[in-house]
Amino acid sequence: MAHALIHAAAFLLTLNGPAGAQEATGLQELPTDGDSMVLDTITVTARRREEAAQDAPVAVTVVPREDIGPGKVETLEDAAFRSPNTVFSGQGGPLTIRGVGNLGMSGGVDRQPGVGMFLDEVYIARPFGYPTYLDDTERVEIVRGSQATLYGKNTIGGAVNLVFRDPAERAGAEVEASFGTGPEGRLRGAFDAPFTTAVGTGDFAMRGFLSWTGRNGYIDNLPTGDTVGNENALATRFTVTGHLSPDTKVKIAVDYSHTDNDGGLWYTTLPLAFSYKSTSDYAPINRIDIGGVMGRMDHEMGWARLTSITAYRGHDMKSVLDGDFTPADYIVQAQTESQRQFTQDLRLTSTTDGPLRWLGGLFYMNENFNGAQYFELTSVPEALWSRSVFDQTTNTFAAFAELGYKIIPALELVGGLRYTYEVKDTTAFTASPSGTYMFGMPGYASGDTDFGNLSPELSAVYTFSEGNIAFAKFARGFKSGGISPFIDVNNSANTYDPETTTSYEVGVKTTWLDGRLTLNASAFYVDWQNQQAVIYTSPFTRVIRNAAAATSQGVELEAAARVTENLILSANYGYLDTHYDDFVDDVLGVVYTGNPLPFAPRNSFGAGARWSSPVGGGLTFVAALDYSYRSSYAFNPDDLYRQAPTHLVDARMGLQAEHWSATLWAKNLLDEVYLQQYFLYAGVDMGVASPGRTVGVTVKAQW
């Protein structure tokens, strides 16, 4: 593979060959941002500093504010469809990038993501703490590949940065209403309010945001005759920014959301699921409350910037569903979670000009997590349900540094290092107050584990001109081990070791035709060792072992072009080749070696078109069309059932004025039927299908 990467790098670098020929491409004299024939500059913070996406030596897909909202990118699943080699699944990571994710549902209640989620640079430790909707988001950055140095937590698969909108400099307000088939509806409002204080420079401002989303069901439940799959979500956020002094800027944000839905819980056999039907007699419950507060300070010292990000977050979740997925009043299943986390991120970044730049920092996280799974006869009162309970306290300490030096003005060598030390105090037990022993015989295990890791990251970046770079990168990803929710043989704690990824990547980012066209490409190879996997100790009991090793390699292409003053086209393609190098379950007698990794489609493709043109009277006609494709992929290591190839088309068109807009939109225009959830239950393929075509209208007023 190393030989193939060298050839791939040579091929990709040839794309930049004409970059130095100003007469041929005009790349040395890009038009100003005011020129309407130039693609808009997209800013990212993927490397923990603001820079143009075209100048960042990292594979990153950005979903900007104008593409986020009703009928557009509304959820993390929508965002994943915009990024090559990226899959979102409630049964998986939930985010899997380049085939790298985590155990998902099979790992029990303790789900530690392999792809890091960051809300305004605050790490979110558990997937149920992720936002349901991308409300009031400035942009979404999907960073592909392990991030060893700069992020609050070392990530093995990649990172997703959700950057929320800050207060505007002048007072304003906006209201928006969306109505669609289903029926579904969304109401949202926001305001910006500058104000003065007794301290500082008087440039403080507040932004408040509130949204409600509701949807009636789309699944026919045959035993009751009801239409199910309802949604009810409320979210709010308040942000204050300002300067305590000319050199010190602060930001304080508070957010809360409540989601009550049952759309992903009506499991049934796949023929019924694909017909939007279910056969449950027990009405599911799914409630999630998420909240947090964050304080950030940036202090300029002339030669460096000191950044402190302090945050406290948490979530509470309860999910109850029909445990046998039939009309019989027989079994109930449930899961609960309560999580609280405190994080402190402290960074010092050089700000002086010169060939040398550096960054150093410290990170700390304390997490308290309690989760439980229940499996019981429906005739038993809830207080007596058989259960598997998991209680864990984690303390993470990390120190990191990055040094970049331009040995010549065009060539920068970058080295980074992160040391992580993590301590986990865990208790796991199985109990059956009812005496039915539906979760097996009672067991109890507890213990402390600690892990240390030193992760390097090296890269070389060659800048041909603004927006034209070539880069090569080596990184080591790390995800700690621990004690699982399962009881091991001899009634002992099930302890497992960390897993690591070693990744190699080469890429180019190029700008052509006087700034009207960008074309980016990357090739990568990932060696995933000591992978944490579910192994059975009997046909009915399971544990987590470092039982698997895997390889992922592939190519990613992304392009955007302003064809005319009115029309912008974009496209992306991802090719992914993954397999287990070594994975055998001796108890079940199953060999997974050679199988592809779950949630890793061989091909992914996306294309989009944006049109904008004045029509007179102060009005502008806007339209957009987006197409996304994923080839088939497995849900489990056994590769016995695969999601069929999926084609999604979203479209919208409307009118915009200075203070209002109206948009007609369609999600999943082709009415594609694909699975939202899947698992194998007692040898039967079970699932829940995603909603079909939705058509709606959004009206917005702002002043």
Q: Give the rounded overall mean pLDDT.
A: 90
Q: Report the major sheet.
A: 22 strands, antiparallel, barrel
Oligomeric nature of the chains: single chain
Report the uncertain regions. Answer: 1-35
Ends: how far apart?
57 Å
How many DSSP E strands?
42
Query: How many DSSP helices?
Result: 4
Radius of gyration: 25 Å
The fraction of residues in strands falls at over 45%
CA-based shape: globular
Structural class per helix/strand content? Answer: mainly beta
Kindly state the percentage of residues in helix: under 10%
In short:
The protein is mainly β.
Observed structural traits:
mainly beta; 22-stranded antiparallel β-barrel; five-stranded mixed sheet; 4 helices
Protein topology:
Layout: H1 2-14, H2 22-25, E1 43-44, E2 51-52, E3 60-64, H3 76-81, E4 86-88, E5 95-97, E6 115-119, E7 122-124, E8 137-144, E9 158-164, E10 172-180, E11 184-195, E12 204-215, E13 219-221, E14 226-228, E15 231-245, E16 248-261, E17 268-269, H4 270-273, E18 277-278, E19 285-300, E20 304-322, E21 331-350, E22 356-377, E23 387-408, E24 411-431, E25 443-465, E26 468-479, E27 482-487, E28 493-496, E29 499-512, E30 517-536, E31 542-562, E32 567-585, E33 590-591, E34 603-616, E35 619-630, E36 633-634, E37 642-643, E38 646-656, E39 660-667, E40 675-681, E41 684-689, E42 694-702
Parallel strand pairs: 6-9, 13-18
Antiparallel strand pairs: 1-2, 3-8, 4-5, 6-7, 8-9, 10-11, 10-42, 11-12, 12-15, 13-14, 15-16, 16-19, 17-41, 19-20, 20-21, 21-22, 22-23, 23-24, 24-25, 25-26, 26-29, 27-28, 29-30, 30-31, 31-32, 32-33, 32-34, 34-35, 35-38, 36-37, 38-39, 39-42, 40-41
